[in-house]
Batch of 3 targets.
Target 1
Amino acid sequence: MSILDLGFDSPEALLEDVKDMAPFMDAMIADLGLSENGAVQSIRDGISPHIVLGLSDDHLDAIFATGLNYMQAGEVAQAQTVFQKLVTFKSIDYRFWYALGTTFQTQERYEDAGRAYLMSLALKATDVDGYLRLGECLLAAGELENALGSFQTALALCADGHGQDDQQQIAERRVAYTHQRLDNSGAGSTSIS
């Protein structure tokens, strides 16, 4: 079992679980008296909450900068709150997921961090830092083979022109370190299923 597993045996099981939640969500919205609320209806129709709330990209960038300032000041919980709001407002911005992942990783919540990094990478598959951070989480969880794959992907992206020299050097060191750990452990680690 990997830290990245969602606890579902198949994609169909995940979809079934989401479908089972729909009546509960409908009842909750009705109980709150929001069934006829235009903003709620727009969100349920698939319009991004940031659009419904009238938040421009400049607004979101300013909020993001606030979260970054909290992180730099060491106020991880405050930063995490900001980034969680941002992924709620606009879930398709990879930066917000990546930043949220860093807050979890700082707290050594590697499973949550790994999932946030995966969301970030789903939105920007060429983000070298995303693969490096994901690999670090997998390494911390003892998933050496999966970590190696993540670091090797970062290295390949650098070779393909997507990374900087410092990212390539980090990836090379992480690959070498993970190979050494695998050699020392007899290559017995958990793989993503």
Target 2
Amino acid sequence: MSEKYIRKNKNNFTVIKNSRTYGKYDSLDVAVFARGLLVSSDWQLDNIHDEIFEIDDGYIVFKVIDDKLFCLGQFSEKPTFDAISKLTRKKIRNPNNSKYGLNISRLFDNYIIKKQIAGDEYIFGVFDNLEDATFSRNFLLEHDWDVNAFGEIEFCDETDTYKIVEVFDDRIYILASYETLAEAEKNLENAKSEFLNKIFKHKNGLANYPHLDILTDRIDELENDFQLKTQDDFWNIGDVENPLEDIIFNLTPWQKITYDNAGDEFTFQQLKVKLKRYESKNFDKKIQRYLDELQELNLIEKLDDDVYRKV
């Protein structure tokens, strides 16, 4: 019965009996071993209690997860309990070895956590980086998708960092990450203040944080919740009538020279000609650096390979 109950697919081998799939495996040898475990347990997953099994060249680890028998890996030395726990968490979070794991998809430069519940699709958060999205998804998986289970500071077991978390209208926002709990507690107010600043700057075109779109009309409410006023190192944002003029005023001297010599629409070469009197070593690299900085400040945008314009 070398391949009985085993179906060969394009990239894997599946163990099937009576139309039920018990697991998918990368090699025939692993599929045969899994089938042996199932046969000896009378095809009852609840009867499989061991996780570590000896094989000729070491050990192989199997784990029952969500009514499937997964192979977590093969090892030359017997793995520890902690190692198996980490492998189990990893498999639960990404059972199909997809790019981002369960419930995370990418839209442009953002990462979205979505899940179908009772036929309806819910968005649990939009993030500007995969690390925060992964942490939030992992926490939700371990807490039955209850957003109210988040505390103000939570530990991320994948990055060994402490994350400051806020939940608004059942959506998760990661404000900051720190190496230690003490750092997170010390910087709690600063993280909230910077979060408010980001929302304000995004709303007024001073920065680009699309994952905060939904909060741009709720600054007053958030200030009340945090008991903080929106502010910035360079100016008191709440008192600014024209944020664009204020940010131009606070440019570094070379940023200001570059900005003032740029036309409404211009090429790199045209700008270089206007700045020729300032020419020095690595001149092109310096101009490009200041242009990049002005783009980050949303004062200049790039139209194509060599054309820029003031925003």
Target 3
Amino acid sequence: MIRETFRPWGRLELLLDQLDVERWSFIGAVSTEDRCSTALEILSEHGPQEKSLIFRIEDAPSRFYTEVERKTGLKEQDFTSLGVLGSEIRNHKLLGRHGGPLNDAIEFISNPSLENLIVDISSLPKKFFFFIIRKILEQPERLKNVIVTYTEPGSYCFESLAENPEAWNPLPGFLPPRKEPDNKVLFIGLGFEPLGLPELYSSGLFSSAKIRLLFPFPADPTGVARNWDFARLLEPVPGNASANIERVDARNVPDTFDKLVSLSEHGQIYSILAPFGPKPMSLAMCLFASAHSTRENNPSVFYTQPTVYNPNYSSGVKIVDDRPMVNAYCIRLNGNNLYASIK
């Protein structure tokens, strides 16, 4: 077994080989993306698995709706071919009340027979996977091992990835304190789509907070250019946000978590987290906010959730050494949470 003092991460197949676990349960999402079933494909190579929970999330009506539904239906067939039962695929709408999908998640992870779990966030909306991860970390020690996976796509489309964002609101389970402290820091994960954030930024909404922009680097040149475009949209506002850039490796969840801990003085400074960046960076934000959730000045997570996704959001799966690039992160090992608050 891997030593519990580490926060293991790496390629999924290598991590699975190092863990003494024969059968895993699985949470994921079916979408238009080729990568949405890749983690389950790799898991299936290791033998029969336990139960699954697959979300099929319906976007808001748009000019993309018909194509999104068509492509998602085709990808759903990939899940069933991997042994997922029809009853394990749950249909929910992206908009409206969160009760349905969140209740499904709570019911699934509360099953007393559940011991080993993989959560694939590659195609799960952040408003759902933040809540799921938080609830998993609150489970008792009977839930022994938990891995979070993220599959890198072959490429992203050059058009807008997502549109028509909702208002700036806290994600379920990550509300701010009743009395927001005066001393606060806003961590913005830089991604490809600003989703209305620059307008909120320039309105003065965050004028009383220190700003830290988490910039994904290293990254491919196209990605770096799009991240810089995002940062420049925040540049004209008072405070010169571009001077507050913190470089983070977008794949390295442990390092990003540690950076958030350090910049917040071990959670002593009230933190507002804005997960607009890559999913692994957002996972680190989720783990940080969850680890410090019991503090009086608990971190909050705010987002402008897009309601429409481009059916060509990404294509293909990144291949390295003739294998799909699926990053895997142990967040619980032998019943112990590996990302915990430092008192």
